[in-house]
Amino acid sequence: MSKECIACGKTALTKNEIGINIKLLGEGTEAFYCMDCLAEYLDVSVQDILDKIEEFKEEGCKLFS
């Protein structure tokens, strides 16, 4: 099932995009943002989010590929 961004409508969100939404917005999250819209929503840069994804990967988080 393909997820899409609730803000801009981008389709086919990546596993990392879906994973970071779940990680930052909570396990019950059913509405997802693409990387650009999530960064805007959280008032951070896309690079900040990418850095966080790398941290979570290094910790062995299964939400990220």
| Share of residues in strands | under 5%
DSSP strand tally = 0
Taking all Cα atoms into account, the compactness measure Rg is: 11 Å
Kindly give the count of domains. 1
Question: From N to C, what is the helix and strand string?
Answer: HHH
Distance between the ends:
17 Å
**Sheet with the most strands?**
none
| Category from helices, strands and their pairing | mainly alpha
How many helix segments? 3
Question: Per the principal axes of the C-alpha atoms, what is the gross shape?
Answer: globular
Query: Residue-averaged pLDDT, rounded?
Result: 94
Helices and strands, with pairings:
Blueprint: H1 15-25, H2 35-42, H3 46-58
Features:
single chain, 65 residues, 0% strand
Description:
There is one protein chain. By secondary structure, the protein is mostly helical. It has one domain (1-65). It contains 3 helices and no strands. The protein has helices at 15-25, 35-42, 46-58. The longest helix has 13 residues, at 46-58. The mean pLDDT is 94.
